[in-house]
Amino acid sequence: MTSLLFFSFLWSLVAADIYMHNPRGCNNRLDEARRERNNANRLFDSQNNNRGGYNVGKLYYYEGSVLSIEWTIQHSCADPNNHCEMILQYMCGDNVRNGITTQTIPDNPALCKDYDCNSDHRFGMHEDYDYYTNCKYRNRNKGLFTADRKLRRDSAIYTRQNPGGTRRGYECSEERDYYPYWHPTPWKDIAVLTNDVSRCKMYQSQSENVKGRWACELTKEYLKKMNWRNYKIPNNREDCESRNFTWKETPSHSLPAPECRETDWSRDNHLGNGKGGYTNKYNWTLPDLNHEQCVLRIRYNISTGDFDGWGPSVNSSTNGVNLDIGEKYGMNESTAAERGYVFKQNPEVALFPGFDLKLRLAINTNQYGRVFQDRSHTFAVRRRPSEIKNVKIHNLNVRGKRGNIVQVYPGVEYDFVPNTLRVKDGDYIHFQWTGSNTNPNNNDGQGKAGTDRTNVVLLSDNEWGKNYPSLLDKSNLLGMDKTSLNHLAVLDNSQFGGEMSELDDAGTYFDLGPKKVTGIGTYHYMSTRNNNFSNRSQKGRIVISNTEQISRKLGRLGGTLKFSDGQHVTFGPETLAQLQTISVELMSADDGQKMIEENGGRISVGHGYASDFIVVNPHSLATNKKFEIGMKVDSEATSKIQFYRSSHELHLNTWYKVDWSIANGFATIETYEGGVYVARTLPDSAIISGIVVTCIVVVIVIGGTAFYFRRHPDKWGSVKSSCLNICRSCKSSV
């Protein structure tokens, strides 16, 4: 019978896969004035749709500030449908650059200025010429699984996913496709997000951040004698030393091991947001890089759940062999082969025994176990000026580009990042963004065709849904001066005159610099430029409180959320059953009492406060194991205190004692639950004795009085009348 086509996961025709939205991901785009990029091979192999990416624009950030990295992916993570890893890395270098042409940088120095491609700034470049040349002439790792792919040659630029050795910039294909990689690279690890946290120990211990890499160093005599087109670089110690070369170690990057935790959940075949409708993100606290030319990279390693890519049979021993996957479907090897349940190109499977009917599966073996990636345009990380040396800086940026959702897809429409920013009174916010003058001219939006612009003005009535801004002379946005508010609204700190009603003549780049923000409250703001029916509403919210807050995603491996004064909340391994956002808040005793009163609660236990309040959110948190809260306590009251817990579920009216211990003025609480924690002083024994005696006397008096009036009911009327007169007198005097 005629074979039918059965569409399984159609990896060979994937339309889009990973896009970085903040900072602006380039997806190999430079400044094209069309929806498609000009050159998919300009800098790296993204495997993404040609319409992805944002036009070039450069930002800078201060070390120690927090940068929200946001992305969308086409296929799922944290889902049983596949295996998934997300690798976040960065690199900096004097020659790292965006370039001014969409052409791919040559690998022939004769085509570059001064015979030096590394310094020819016409071309964009991340990895350099020497790095690529070493990869091009180094033997590939022949222990890797290549399925039934026929790799053209034996160097490291040929892989199962790139069997033809196509060049993209100076990227090394083997390094791109495998992590952790075994040869020296310029990439530094930030984080590894994985479906299987049991691999985290391996990822962290093998990271080049902490472990050096070995490579074969050829002798100068050999390089002079051989034509560079003919030499081969051994990739292991035995082959290297057998040819009298040097097997040399390159030191590690001497950085902390990358964070490793679960991936954020996302659904497959849906290039959109994650749980709760929010874009999946990772908050990166920027290290002291002190460099003007850096680039961020995010890789999305994904494979089908049909076979175990980590299994013992998935290696070079099964290359060219139809890998058996029948066991997963309850078949032995011979039955699986007979019925087509093998991993090969477009297999035909017999679903029904005894029927001559086979269905063809659209499987492409170089697409199973696939890597997608995106990279940012270059950015700078600078050291702080002395006047903001010890303050907390929050980056507030803009993502997206001009156009409606269909026109910008797989990019996104405008939004502020973070959309909701929570800061402490007295912190600093760094308002900064970049746009473009080369968006497609027929993309919808306000202002001059093809232009990106953004501004910030306070919303009237402080509500999301309003569309009229507050008057500048009456607004009090974040306690900033009128000059700063004017710059945010009209973008005139670097622009003198021009047509500014829709900001057409303002520059594409805006930088207010870090500004101190004050004034406890919630501030809603908008961009007047982008508030029509084409780009919808571009609005954001800033919440200022006088408490210190820390929010972080933690999973099965746990972690610590630490306040600036050392107080902390620590979750050990397996304390949390799954990845979730944990938020902790530190507030003074006065602020804690105010919080209780505002929620209609009260605290009737204890005599006074002997610590700050620590709030662990969500209040409903219930863990598998006890987690630890470390709190400072009043050193003079340590023998007369007790710790208590309450929560919103208890309306902050009911308080429970919690066990605690103390050492060096620091109390340690071990608990299973979120909520509000505080230490209360206990009254001393003399006061307690007095209270007990008083209570006994009151009970005797009340009891005796009740007994008297029960025996003499005729006396009660006159007493009742007198009491009413007394109460009436009291009311009138108030």
Structural class: alpha+beta
Radius of gyration: 33 Å
Strand content: 25-35%
Q: What is the count of DSSP helices, taking H or I runs of 4+ residues? A: 11
User: Can you summarize the main beta sheet?
Assistant: 7 strands, mixed
- Helicity, as a percent range: 10-25%
Assembly type: single chain
Average pLDDT works out at: 87
Shape assignment:
globular
Distance between the termini: 98 Å
Total number of strands: 37
Low-pLDDT segments, ≥5 res: 1-16, 686-695, 719-734
Q: What report would you give on this structure?
A:
By secondary structure, the chain is α+β, with helices and mostly antiparallel strands. The chain is built from 11 helices and 37 strands. The strands form 9 sheets. Strands 3, 5, 6, 9, 11, 16 and 17 form a 7-stranded mixed beta sheet that branches. Strands 26, 29, 30, 31, 33, 34 and 37 form a 7-stranded antiparallel beta sheet that branches. A hairpin with a 2-residue loop joins strand 35 and strand 36 (666-673). The longest helix has 27 residues, at 685-711. Residues 1-16, 686-695 and 719-734 have low confidence and may be disordered.
List keywords for this structure.
single chain; 734 residues; alpha+beta; seven-stranded mixed beta sheet; 37 strands; 15% helix; disordered N terminus; disordered C terminus
